[in-house]
Amino acid sequence: MKADIFGIFKDDEGKFTSSLVNDVTGMLSLHGAAHLGIRGEDMPLRRGLTRLEARYYIDVYSKDDSKDQTILRFAKLDFCTLKVFHWKELTTLTEWWKTLDVKTKLPYVGDRIVECYFWIMRVYFEPPYSFGRMTLSKIIPFISIIDNTYDAYCAIEEAQLFTNAIKRSNPRNLYSTFST
Questions:
Q1: Nearest to residue 21, comparing CAs of 31, 35, 33?
Q2: pTM for the predicted model, two decimal places
Q3: For residue 161, what are the CA distances in angstroms to 22, 46, 91, 153, 154?
Q4: CA–CA distance from 38 to each of 7, 45, 118 (Å)?
Q5: Are 27 and 21 in contact, with CB atoms under 8 Å apart?
Q6: Where is the Terpene synthase metal-binding domain (predicted)?
Q7: Which of 43, 59, 64, 111 sits CB 3.0–4.6 Å from 47 for a disulfide?
């Protein structure tokens, strides 16, 4: 798909045609089509996370001559409130991760708790999904640890012993790890 494919919707000045601007369904369709990606496309971080993308649009809207100051203030307040909310979640997660002392016990494992949190933010970005965000942000690093252990750290014999240990383990013991 060519980058200028949407040029047919613009007038000579590079603005969207008035017939499209007044067509809500058309604008929503154009908006949806603009999010389609192709393999190898490099998208900025703000394009993947809904709330980071909102921050970009707040900046764009603030420069618009026809902006509504009340809406702009509300958007900024909403963004800042959510930023504090997510910052608290990240603080809780990083403190939990530090108490596990994974870096010392398993030196081949990287500190990727923040990265895991942002992975989950793509799915559960709304505030009511805090429990799901926090839970999955705790589970994904352990899946990564197990994967790294098998792939890069242990020999075949050690992998077999590790597999047997996992099979013998009691899943109820995991509750204490994830509930803190």
A1: 31
A2: 0.66
A3: 66, 43, 35, 13, 10
A4: 19, 16, 22
A5: yes
A6: 98-172
A7: 43
Structure tokens at 121: 């933010």
All domains of the chain in start order, with CATH: 1-42 (no CATH), 45-178 (1.10.600.10)
pLDDT digits (tens, 9 = 90+) for 49-92: 777 778 888 888 888 888 889 999 999 999 999 999 999 999 99
C-alpha 115/C-alpha 150 separation (Å) is 21
Read off the pLDDT of residues 103-160 as tens digits, 9 standing for 90 and up. Answer: 898 888 888 899 999 889 888 888 999 999 999 999 999 999 988 888 888 889 988 9
